[in-house]
Amino acid sequence: MARLIIIDDEKSIRDALRDILEYEGYEVDEAKDGEEGLELIKQNSYDVALCDIKMPKMDGLELLLKAADVGKGTQFIMISAYGNVENAVEATKRGAFDFIIKPPDLNRLLVTVRNAIEKAKLVIETKTLKRRIYKLNEIVGDSDAIRRVKDTIDRVAPTEARVLITGANGSGKEMVAKQIHEKGSRASMPLVEVNCAAIPSELIESELFGHEKGAFTGASSKRVGKFEQADGGTLFLDEIGDMSLSAQAKVLRALQESKITRVGGDKEIKINVRVIAATNKDLRREIQEGMFREDLFHRLSVIRIHVPPLADRREDISLLADKFLHDIAEEYGAQPKEITPDAMTYLQSLAWTGNVRELRNVVERLVILCGDEINRNDVEMYA
Questions:
Q1: What is the mean pLDDT of the chain?
Q2: Residues facing residue 237 across a β-bridge
Q3: In what residue span(s) does the Response regulatory domain sit (predicted)?
Q4: What is the three-class DSSP state of 372?
Q5: Which residues pair with 238 in a beta bridge?
Q6: What does the alpha-carbon distance between residue 338 and residue 367 come to, in Å, rounded to a whole number?
Q7: pLDDT, tens digit (0-9, with 9 covering 90-100), for 198-239
Q8: Residue 91: pLDDT over 90
Q9: Could you give the CA distance from residue 379 to residue 325 in angstroms, rounded to a whole number?
């Protein structure tokens, strides 16, 4: 059931609105002025506030700003006997969902309330989803190596510097890239990922830069590339060491000039993209062998972050395993299982050539196939 609050200094208005809203099945509280309304908003969770603008002690517009600082996502419908454009515009600027003139039209009031409730639900769902995504991308570990990685992320994320992330497959390079994006000023804009190793060399340029209709056989319509899709946000070029030399040249030009040209086109398109790249290869060796452009390497590696393999931070294995146990239990809607100390010791002794990705797969296998307590015999059987 949706919960609403009416904030108005006129008791007759509060009583009339309460009768209407309770008849519609809503739970309703009320406050006689802005200060009382703010205290109730701090103490409770309301989907919608119907708030007068002209009130003693604290007016509705001031309350609207202070309620936003509380951060509970309450949607404000401002109500006023003074139906001028200035009030409506100012209320909207400060974040009000809508503005209604007294006495309110009943049908419009109820429609507006229903829409505001839907907006409140969306705000809560978005916050929950963001917390879940952040939790999934959390870098877990307390080893010196991981502390250095986390510290570098915190330092570089607020900047516009390009970052090159190196490390073995499964070590967590993608998570580092996502953390940099989420902690930076572009977090509200898209993070577009491209796995350069998964795209055939003849298609990589079209994937990155897009193409015009008729640019090549099969190009039946115009296509917007990843650089354009990431405009204003971040482009993550994973496994960039596998990119063809011709595509490397075009990426270098895009970084130098902040412009791209679609395949088969001649129009230059301005882009505003932060580029983060990752590779499991030794790019210096690739440069010596003529497989990677040295000028592109220097453009990409303003900041370098090396993600250590799991074998070099075994003290983090217990923390990671516990996290995976809880994450997997949450996914399955079950209670987290326990790993016995000797089973954990055995996990820490394994080679982990697949790194963190392999560890998570093993933990999920143990959760599915074992009882409530996972012992050493279970790990020896299924790891």
A1: 90
A2: 194, 277
A3: 3-117
A4: coil
A5: 195
A6: 9
A7: 998 888 999 999 999 887 877 788 889 999 999 999 999 999
A8: no
A9: 14
Tens digit of pLDDT for each residue in 279-292? 999 999 999 999 99
Strands (E), 61-152: 75-80, 98-101
- Separation CA 286–CA 304 (nearest Å): 17
Closest CA to 361 of 332, 321, 334: 321
Residues 296 and 217: their CA atoms lie apart, in Å, by 30
Q: What length is written for the chain? A: 383
Instruction: Identify the structural domains of the chain with CATH numbers, from first to last.
Output: 3-134 (3.40.50.2300), 158-308 (3.40.50.300), 311-382 (1.10.8.60)
CA dist., res. 125 & res. 231, Å (int): 26
Separation of alpha carbons 288 and 158, rounded Å = 33
Full-prediction pTM beyond 0.85?
Answer: no
Residue 315 CB: number of other CB atoms within 10 A? 13
Closest CA to 139 of 105, 109, 174, 111: 174
The whole-number pLDDT of residue 196 equals 94
Name the phi and psi angles at 185, rounded to 5. -75, -10
**More confident of the two residues 137 and 78:** 78
One-letter amino acid at 200 equals P
**262 closest CA partner among 244, 250, 275, 246:** 250
DSSP bridge partners of 193: 236
Give the model's pLDDT for residue 166: 98
Strand partners, 78: 51, 99
What are 252's two structure tokens?
């270098």
Q: Which amino acid is at 146?
A: I
* Distance, CA of 105 to CA of 277 (rounded, Å): 56
Rounded-to-10 torsion of CA 122, 24, 67, 124 = -20
| The dihedral sign for the CA sequence 353, 357, 359, 361 | negative
With beta carbons less than 8 A apart as the criterion, state whether 149 and 307 touch. Answer: yes
E strand or H helix at 5, and its extent? strand 3-7
Query: Are 55 and 82 within 8 A, CB to CB?
Result: no
Q: How far is it, in rounded angstroms, from Cα 229 to Cα 188?
A: 14
- Crossing angle, helix 173-182 and helix 144-156, to 10 degrees? 40
Rounded to 10 deg, the angle between the 60-70 and 34-43 helix axes is 20
